[in-house]
Specification:
- By secondary structure, the protein is an alpha/beta fold.
- It has 3 domains: 27-93, Elongation Factor Tu (Ef-tu), domain 3 (Beta Barrel); 98-380, P-loop containing nucleotide triphosphate hydrolases (Rossmann fold, 3-Layer(aba) Sandwich), CATH 3.40.50.300; 384-509, Up-down Bundle (Lysin).
- It contains 15 helices and 19 strands.
- It has helices spanning 5-18, 151-156, 175-185, 202-214, 232-252, 272-285, 299-307, 338-346, 355-359, 382-405, 413-428, 439-450, 462-476, 478-487, 492-510, and strands at 28-35, 38-42, 51-54, 60-66, 70-76, 87-94, 96-98, 107-108, 126-128, 166-169, 192-198, 221-226, 254-256, 260-262, 264-270, 311-312, 321-329, 349-353, 372-373.
- Strands 8, 10, 11, 12, 15, 16, 17, 18 and 19 form a 9-stranded mixed β-sheet that branches. A 6-stranded antiparallel barrel has the order 1-2-5-4-3-6. A two-stranded antiparallel ribbon has the order 7-9.
- A hairpin with an 8-residue loop joins β16 and β17 (321-329).
- The longest helix has 24 residues, at 382-405.
- The chain is elongated and about 115 Å long.
């Protein structure tokens, strides 16, 4: 059969017309220098600030220094395989992390990749790690408490949803313990927790995760880990990844098992001292000019743009909240160092922990004199406000008298009574680790202490009295605890019932 040339021509023409090669334009550059997790790339003219870059072998990087000839990028992962002459491509995307319900109960790295051997995370939703904080107009004032379950904090330094409260102190003073207790206490309280571990040993993080699992707290918690052996860029990214996950909860809410939709989040950054060190290391390697203590000039902005993202949104914008609990480690109690003063000035108050108090057995080792909460008192329940006011006054008087009493030989009865009361109050504010208390129990025992009902009980037996009193209330007067928990108010009627219950228990305790 003869093949007609016009048929061949028409077939070729139709094939050419239907041919559609998808073209993709990407800026491509070449690595001219690499080392210490930093790459200098030539030829990436179109790179954006904080844009994700693709290195050979699937390793990602982030463009930070946009210079005339070259781009300085940090490598987010293993940099050993990257060498001079390698090709680098732009992606057109800024650094993003997966967000949403699928992350609950998981341990992830700052890029949102799972590191807990529980399989892949099934979520398509992502958010950029960097974002401008909500403006004043979309916020409302803090009015709902975050119950830490720690008597001394809930009574004296209350924290509200949407607040930024700094936990500051030397190493080994119980900073992380306060944060973990707070996370454990949120079980069933409609608050999703994000714990960001920066520069910690992985064994320490594993221990923390095990404690959270043991207390059933991982169901409402996401753990973001940038370990001590991770490169500085990952440690730098970790808190921003955590706050992006928290913002998703605040703005869109997530379903938590047994609690329905939750749109309140709590972010713990443990700790921002190591975060500042990682940023300093990165900046010096990128050859940015150093300033005070060799930190770069924008180290204040590093933390302010992170902590300003904590907010309590108004009802028109969903009414969600994001609370921040940053942790700062001081050296030899020096709160006037560069990073501590920066973060103190950014936050809405600080919980200051002291080594001397910790060693003296006062745990949590709170220095009530210089600890403060600037907005949390508006979020305190009415019942807690009533017992907290005399507690603050009595403890303040006790501290000033205790210092004076060391040098005085004979004291009048009023002074001795105040010292006795203060001793009992100091004892009652002590609390074991991982045993947060519901607010109704806190109110009941603090009411007893501030009314002088413990004054005649020997100090070593105060803890015994407290434990027995809770049991007594649970069995003999459950209605008092129930009403305190539901109304969150200490009415005259309830106070009278509580007085009777305390007197009845005191009789049996002293018998």
């Amino acid at each position: 059969m003869a093949i007609r040339s016009d048929e061949i021509t028409s077939i070729i023409k139709s094939s050419i017309d239907s041919f559609d090669a998808a073209t993709e334009t990407r800026s491509v550059g070449t690595v001219v220098e690499v080392g210490d997790g930093i790459a200098q790339i030539y030829g990436l003219d179109g790179a954006l600030a904080s844009e994700m870059l693709e290195f050979p072998g699937g390793v990602m990087g982030m463009a930070l220094n946009l210079e005339e000839e070259t781009v300085g990028a940090v490598i987010l992962g293993e940099s050993q395989a990257i060498k001079e002459g390698d090709t680098v491509k732009t992606t057109g995307r800024v650094v993003e992390v997966p967000v949403g319900q699928a992350l609950l109960g998981r341990v992830v790295n700052p890029l949102g990749q799972p590191i807990d051997d529980k399989g892949a995370i099934s979520t398509k939703k992502t958010r950029p790690v960097e974002r401008i904080a909500p403006g004043v107009i979309v916020r409302q004032s803090v009015d709902t408490p975050v119950q830490t379950g720690i008597k001394a904090i809930d009574a004296l330094i209350p924290i509200g949803r949407g607040q930024r409260e700094l936990i500051i102190g030397d190493r080994q003073t119980g900073k992380t313990a306060i944060a973990i207790d707070t996370i454990i206490n949120q079980t069933g309280k409609g608050l999703v927790c994000i714990y960001v571990a920066i520069g910690q040993k992985l064994s320490t993080v594993a221990q923390t995760v095990a404690i959270l699992e043991q207390h059933g707290a991982m169901a409402h918690t996401i753990v973001v880990v940038a370990g001590a052996e991770d490169p500085a860029p990952l440690q730098y990214l970790a808190p921003y990844a955590g706050v992006a996950m928290g913002e998703e909860v605040m703005e869109n809410g997530v379903e938590v098992e047994g609690q329905g939709k939750v749109n309140d989040a709590l972010c713990v950054y443990d700790d921002l001292s190591k975060h500042a060190w990682a940023y300093r290391e990165m900046s010096l390697l990128l050859r940015r000019p150093p300033g005070r203590e060799a930190y770069p000039g924008d180290v204040f902005y590093l933390h302010s743009r992170l902590l300003e993202r904590a907010a309590r949104m108004n009802d028109d914008n969903g009414g969600g909240s994001l609370t921040a609990l940053p942790i700062i480690e001081t050296q030899a109690g020096d709160v006037s160092a560069y990073i501590p003063t920066n973060v103190i000035s950014i936050t809405d108050g600080q919980i200051f922990l002291e080594t001397d108090l910790f060693n003296a057995g006062q745990r949590p080792a709170l220095n009530i004199g210089i600890s403060v909460s600037r907005v949390g008192s508006a979020a305190q329940t009415k019942a807690m406000k009533k017992v907290a006011a005399p507690l603050k006054l009595d403890l303040a008087q006790y501290r000033s008298l205790a210092a004076f009493a060391q040098f005085a030989s004979d004291l009048d009865k009023a002074t001795r009574d105040q010292l006795t009361r203060g001793e009992k109050l100091s004892e009652i504010t002590k609390q074991p680790q991982y045993q947060p208390l519901p607010v109704e129990r806190q109110v009941a025992i603090l009411y007893a202490a501030t009314k002088g009902k413990l004054d005649d009980i020997p100090t070593p037996r105060v803890k015994e009295f407290e434990t027995g009193f809770y049991r007594f209330l649970e069995t003999e007067h459950p209605n008092i605890l129930k009403e305190l928990g539901e109304t969150k108010n200490l009415t005259d009627e309830l106070s009278a019932g509580l007085d009777k219950a305390i007197d009845a228990y005191r009789e049996s305790f002293n018998a």
